[in-house]
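From the shared-data thread, chain only:
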Amino acid sequence: GCLMEALNSFISYVKNKMEVIIMAIVSVYVTLIVAGRRTFAQVPKNLQPAVKADLEAMGLDENGNPIEA
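Structure, as C-alpha coordinates:
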Protein backbone atom coordinates (compact mmCIF):
# COMPACT_ATOMS: atom_id res chain seq x y z
CA GLY A 1 0.00 0.00 0.00
CA CYS A 2 0.85 3.63 0.40
CA LEU A 3 2.99 3.03 3.50
CA MET A 4 5.16 0.45 1.73
CA GLU A 5 5.70 2.81 -1.23
CA ALA A 6 6.71 5.59 1.14
CA LEU A 7 9.05 3.25 3.02
CA ASN A 8 10.66 2.00 -0.20
CA SER A 9 11.06 5.57 -1.40
CA PHE A 10 12.71 6.55 1.89
CA ILE A 11 15.06 3.55 1.75
CA SER A 12 16.09 4.47 -1.82
CA TYR A 13 16.69 8.06 -0.70
CA VAL A 14 18.91 6.95 2.20
CA LYS A 15 20.87 4.52 -0.01
CA ASN A 16 21.51 7.28 -2.56
CA LYS A 17 22.68 9.68 0.16
CA MET A 18 24.99 7.01 1.61
CA GLU A 19 26.54 6.43 -1.82
CA VAL A 20 27.20 10.17 -2.17
CA ILE A 21 28.77 10.32 1.30
CA ILE A 22 30.96 7.27 0.61
CA MET A 23 32.08 8.76 -2.71
CA ALA A 24 33.04 11.97 -0.89
CA ILE A 25 35.02 10.04 1.74
CA VAL A 26 36.81 8.10 -1.02
CA SER A 27 37.74 11.41 -2.68
CA VAL A 28 39.14 12.70 0.61
CA TYR A 29 41.33 9.61 1.02
CA VAL A 30 42.54 9.90 -2.60
CA THR A 31 43.46 13.54 -1.98
CA LEU A 32 45.25 12.70 1.28
CA ILE A 33 47.25 9.91 -0.41
CA VAL A 34 48.26 12.17 -3.32
CA ALA A 35 49.30 14.85 -0.81
CA GLY A 36 51.36 12.29 1.13
CA ARG A 37 49.28 12.74 4.30
CA ARG A 38 47.92 9.17 4.36
CA THR A 39 49.05 5.78 3.07
CA PHE A 40 46.87 3.25 1.29
CA ALA A 41 47.20 0.97 4.34
CA GLN A 42 45.49 3.67 6.42
CA VAL A 43 42.38 3.58 4.22
CA PRO A 44 39.57 1.49 5.77
CA LYS A 45 39.51 -1.96 4.11
CA ASN A 46 35.96 -1.51 2.80
CA LEU A 47 36.97 1.68 0.97
CA GLN A 48 40.30 0.45 -0.43
CA PRO A 49 38.91 -0.94 -3.73
CA ALA A 50 37.21 2.38 -4.57
CA VAL A 51 40.26 4.42 -3.53
CA LYS A 52 42.56 2.18 -5.62
CA ALA A 53 40.22 2.50 -8.63
CA ASP A 54 40.19 6.30 -8.37
CA LEU A 55 43.98 6.47 -8.05
CA GLU A 56 44.39 4.15 -11.06
CA ALA A 57 41.95 6.29 -13.07
CA MET A 58 44.30 9.20 -12.35
CA GLY A 59 47.30 7.14 -13.56
CA LEU A 60 48.59 6.69 -10.00
CA ASP A 61 49.54 3.67 -7.94
CA GLU A 62 48.37 2.95 -4.37
CA ASN A 63 51.04 5.35 -3.05
CA GLY A 64 49.89 8.20 -5.27
CA ASN A 65 52.91 7.91 -7.56
CA PRO A 66 52.62 7.90 -11.36
CA ILE A 67 52.28 4.41 -12.81
CA GLU A 68 55.30 3.63 -14.96
CA ALA A 69 54.35 2.46 -18.44
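Residues 26 and 50 are 7 Å apart (CA to CA).
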